[in-house]
Write the structure tokens for this entry.
Amino acid sequence: MKLKYLSLSIITAFTLVGCGGGGSDSIYQGIDTGSAQENKDFQQWHYFEIDGGYNDDALSLNYSIGTIDQGKIYDQNNFEYDNDLTITQNGIYQDFGPKDSKYGYFVGTGSFKNLVLTHQHYSPIGSTGLVFTSTYKKIDLSGKNVLATLEPEHQWDLSNEPTVNFGTVRNTYYNRVKDLTFPAGAYCMQQLTYSNNQENLLAYSNGDEKQYFDDYAAQYSQNAQSRIFKKTYKDTVSYLYSSEGTDADAAHGYAEYKGQYYEVARNAKGLQYSLADEIQNEKDNLPSTLTDADRKLAIQRIESQNNLCTWYNDTASTFIQNNMKP
């Protein structure tokens, strides 16, 4: 997903879980409950991502439907998923729970009202207490460029750099869709912030974490003043690395939970993501050697991310489904 680190999307179904699994084109069938559906007890929102694979040589359109039904949240989508853990001092949570025959995987409880989403992840052991909160902006998409909401910086390149080259596959695809605009009635939700109420570890596995866990543990035992910090959570021991040699900076490492080993990212309590901060950080990191003219263009390209959409309503998603598949 677009924001993998943030919840493996913050971005998150509802950008709060990782990448979901299972599904077919039929999941596009949603219920358009009107322009104020974000305040109703039943809601469905659609997520899309243009995925180029590892080598960007085979484009696909990833899609997902997030459903809120009477306080329960579900996710159903068509791409490969990782059922990662989120671990706190007192709780164990995971991205996906049992699968519902109608709405897909149960991912927790929460609500979406007045452009604020609250979400408590599913817990396999019944943990409670950890709550994620996201704020959103509602964007009217009528007549607006579709690609700009999915790949804003690429769309900016197409409009401002005539010689830009994305490779044969993307060039062909972009030439076909670059001028498409949304119909009347289309709108989306743009995620602005993502925060939590408890420090947590996001734990994920690629299969080779034990050797790194053992290495970090050895470094810690040999020198307690090293840049490796030991932290304990619910049934979990973690060793985290800090480039600055401080506990506050120890944000990445490896952990063991009930005999299983994971790579982990440590998230402090509070704000985990802000679109405005991300944009500002990119501006702040622009090379000092840029000319004034080039800096102005670079800033415009970065600010194109203000067009990015997270969740689409039925009108917008139907248009994307019918026109944006590679």
